Amino acid sequence: MYLEQKGYCYSLPTLHKYMNSELGLKSIVRRKNPGYMHGKPHKVFENKLKQDFHADSINQKWCTDFTYLFLKNGDIRYNCSIIDLYDRSVVASITDRRITSGLAILTLQKALDSQPAIKGELILHSDQGSQYTSKAFIDYCESVHVTQSMSKAGYPYDNAPMERYFNTLKNECTNLYEFKTEEALYRTVEEFAYVTYNHVRPHSFNGYRPPVRQEPQHNQSISSRRSRYFLATSVTKKLDHNRQRSIPFSGMPSPNHRNPCTTTRKCLPSR
Question: Could you tell me the domains of the chain?
């Protein structure tokens, strides 16, 4: 259409030839998400947010969800992330081989471990996935005094900030590379979340500033603490290959339990 408006007439095969052979341009096609297994919920919570995605202070409203990521050979990995609605910063992110309530619990614990003592009510909003409605996850939230909130079933608009983050993660990061190893994928996702997304990438919600630059001085120190915590635990430890099968979960972790997912992924993404 644009070329026609400028008076140029080329066939589609010719354009395709030049885009691929001469310019090296290729389209990025998202893989189809695998089927989702529905479980019987232990308990479903009311929607406390009701699409009010603004927070007056840090650590007041968090959103969480899962998404699918792919290795080059087609194997699936599952990412669980939590963002703070105050500034849209990523509070925690873990990628693993299975989508379980254990992964949801470890992600929440990772987020809580990175924070100073949280004062006041902390709302954690999610969809009605079986991981969040399970007895194990509900019991853990109660044990750490986190108030659950849930979207209406099958209505992603109730958790729009999480959908937006995952869309950005895939469009600006994971869909641009082919990952030969899970270590490469894990490391790339962590670096995008804690470095690029939180400290570099402009956010329209924050007046086109990264979250760490948008916040008042006190909150900046908390965000910096988050990033230092994640980077230190991610870069200084080696990947435990014995846990690559999946994250083991045998009951709620203790309050002092440290997340085994904060481990080093040495490989860089295969470009």
Answer: 38-243 (3.30.420.10)
